[in-house]
């Protein structure tokens, strides 16, 4: 069993999927509004199992990623438990995400390119914080599909660029999001809340580490940003009648959201000259 858990494929797919499924289910039993917190919680559990618990204060960007994500999870759980919504919740998310991005990026801010990268990430963070918060009724499928797509894009790009630890953690986040999506298919059971939006923020933090601290062609991640429009896409996809119709429309939204991620991964592969990663 221990050898199986050491397998990189298991660590970045099967393990986080199972952990995510379990945590989403347990948190749902404790309080329905906390179910989405299982995504970030699953990511942190897998991080500790695969990489280990980082030191505090953290000496590395990945350590900062872990502790920033842990703080975000606590904020999300607190806000969802208190029923915090609207502009206040969006402001809390924006402050946490901007501070986390700057904390991670500060050692790498030594060039114009790095500054532009941080500005793009901050702009995307503002979209995640305030565009999501403007939706009065937030279906969980579309934002979870957006998270799945972004994490896949980061993980696939990192894998091609031979950034093994980032690839594993990004794919683990995608698998954890997949566990949440499975709980909400064919029938949507849970809300998204601030905890879910924190998980999307974690994908941005992973993108920041990839773009600022590796030689990977991270600019291709811009091609994955249309995945954030999955909520808008859902409005134009027919919802269908009955269980089968709703299940089909949810699956369609997920597929549409993932397409930009596949484009980004394909672009990253093409820029390497078609060379496979040693991982």
From TrEMBL:
Transmembrane segments: 12-30, 37-56, 88-106, 112-130, 142-160, 166-185, 249-271
Source species, domain of life: Bacteria
Keywords from the UniProt entry: Membrane, Transmembrane, Transmembrane helix
The protein's name: Uncharacterized protein
Protein's organism: Azospirillum oryzae
